[in-house]
Amino acid sequence: MARERPWVGLAALCACFFLVMLDSTIVTVAVPAILTGLDATLNQVIWVNSVYLLANTVPLLITGRLGDRYGPKRVLLVGLGLFLAASLWCGLATSAGSLIAARAVQGLGAALMTPQTLAFITRLFPPERRAVPIAVWGAVSGVATIAGPVAGGLLVQHAGWEWIFLLNLPIGVAGLLVGALMLPDWRPDSRMRFDTLGAVLASAGLAALVFGVQNGQHYQWASGIVYVIAIGLLLLGGFLIHQRRAPAPLVPMRLFDNRVFGAANLTHAALGFATTGMFLPLVIYVQTVLGMDPLASSLLCAPMAVGAGLAAIAAGKLVARVGARPLVTSGLAALAAGVVVLAIQAEPDTAPLALVPGLVVAGTGIGLVFSPLTAAATFGLSPELAGAASGVFNTSRQVGGVLGSASTGVLLQLGLSLTVPAAAREYAELLPSSYADEFVRRISEAANTASQFGGEGPPVPADWSPSIAERVRDLATDAFNLGFTNAAKATLVLPVVVLVLGMVAASGLRTPVLSRRP
C-alpha cells in the first residue's frame, strides 16, 4: 500500500520534518518569557536553543548511516518517539537546567528523524518524479523555519511558553500513526560497517567547537575556553583526514565528486547560519525594546511566513525550468537585503509596522532557497548513498545553524556589555552627579541578568527619594533600550556577511543540471 500511495507517506515525512524545523526557531519568541519564568540568564536561554541544534547536528552523519543499516522506517519511528517524549519533558520542565537537558534529548530524536525524511523521498519516487516531492519537502522546511516564531508567539501569549513544546504531541502522534502504516519497511544490507572512530572525532569536534564559541563571552575568553575551540578544530580536521582513509566512512568522499553537491552543502550551511542567527536579536528587540507582547510580535512575523510560503511554491514550480542557481542566489540576496533593512529600521522608537517590509523581503528570500537547493543536492543520488547524502546535507544546515546561534549569542552578549554601559553613561548626565556612578553600575550589572528582560529594571537603593527612584527607572529603561538596540543592529551584520559567502558558494550550482530535468 505504501508503494502505491507514496504521497500519503510523504505527508508523514513532512509532518516529522516540520516538527524538527519548527523547534529550531520556535524558542526564540519565548526567550523573554523563559528568562523570567525560569529565572534564567540570557546565556542559559541561548543554550536552550543551541543545545537542541547541537544535539541535532552532532549525530546526523551517524543517523544517516543508521537508516542505511537498519532501514529508514525503523530509525524514523524511533526518533519520532524519542522526540515526542522529550517534548513532553520540555513542557513540564521547572528549571533552566532541566529544560536544557530535555532539549538535548529532543535534538537527538530530531537527528534520528531528519536524514530519513529526505532518504525516503529518493526511495519513494523515481528520479523523473522526484522534483515535486522535493519541492514540497523544501517548502515545508522554509515555512516551518518562519512559522516557528509566529506559532510561538500565539502559544506564549495565550497558553504559556510550555506549550511551544507540547504542541508537538498531537502533530507527532498523527505522523507516527501514518508513518507506521504507510511507509514501507526496507531492509538494507545488514553487513554494513560503521566508522566508529569517525563518529567519535566528528561528535567530539563539533561539541567542543560549539561549546567554546557559545561560552567564550560567558567565561571572558579565558585561555581554557580558547583551548576547547582549538581542540574542536583539530578533531574536525582529524575527522576529514580519517574519512579519506576509512574503509567504511561516515561521509563517502565520492559524494563530493559532484561539485554541485559540495556547493549545495556550503550554501545550506550559510542559510542555516543566517536564519538561526537573525531571529534571537530581533525577537528580544521587538518584545523588550518595542514593548510588543508575544502575540503581537508573532503577528508581526506573519507576513514573513506568508512571503516564505508563496515564494517556496513559486520556486518549486520554477526550478525545473530555470535551474537552481538563479533562484538560490536571488533568495540569499533577498534575505540579506531584508536583514539590512531591518537593521537600518531598528531604533528604540521605531513603529513596529515599519519592520514589515524588511521581514517580507527576508521571508521571500528564505522561501526561494530551500526547494531549489534541495533539488540540486539530491539530483542523481544513488539509493545506496541516500542515507549518507541526506545526513551530510542536513548536517551542513545544522552546523551552520548551531554556529549561527552560538555566534549571534556571543556577539549579542558582548555587544550588551559595551553598548548598555555606554548608553547608561549618556543618560546618567541627566541625573544629579551624586547618583550618576551608581546609576551606571547598576544598569551595567542588569544588562548581564534577566532583570531588564522582565521589564523590572535594575534595583534602586531604598534610601533614594521616590521622585529620584522613579526618574532613575525611566532613564534606566531608556538607556537599556538604546544599548540593546545598538547591540542588536551590530549583531545582524554577521548573518549578512555569511549570506554573501553563501551567494559565492551558490555560484557552483550549475543550472544545466536541473534545466534538463523533465
Could you explain the architecture of this structure?
- Helix 13 packs antiparallel against helix 14 (324-345) and helix 14 packs antiparallel against helix 19.
- The longest helix has 43 residues, at 386-428.
- The chain has 20 helices and no strands.
- The model is unreliable at 450-455 and 511-518 (pLDDT under 50).
- The protein is an all-alpha fold and 518 residues long.
- The protein has helices at 6-25, 31-37, 42-57, 60-70, 72-92, 96-124, 131-158, 163-166, 168-182, 196-215, 223-245, 259-289, 294-322, 324-345, 356-378, 386-428, 433-446, 466-491, 493-506, 511-515.
Biggest pleated-sheet summary? none
Helix content: over 70%
**Termini separation:** 27 Å
Low-pLDDT sequence parts? 450-455, 511-518
> Gyration radius, to the nearest Å?
23 Å
The run of helices and strands is: HHHHHHHHHHHHHHHHHHHH
Report the oligomer: single chain
What form results from the Cα inertia axes? globular
Strand content: under 5%
Structural class: mainly alpha
Give the total of beta strands.
0
Quote the average pLDDT.
Answer: 80
The helix count comes to: 20
Q: What characteristics describe this protein?
A:
518 residues; mainly alpha; 20 helices; 77% helix; globular; disordered C terminus
Q: What layout of secondary structure does this protein have?
A:
Blueprint lengths: L5 H20 L5 H7 L4 H16 L2 H11 L1 H21 L3 H29 L6 H28 L4 H4 L1 H15 L13 H20 L7 H23 L13 H31 L4 H29 L1 H22 L10 H23 L7 H43 L4 H14 L19 H26 L1 H14 L4 H5 L3
Quick summary:
The chain is mainly alpha-helical.
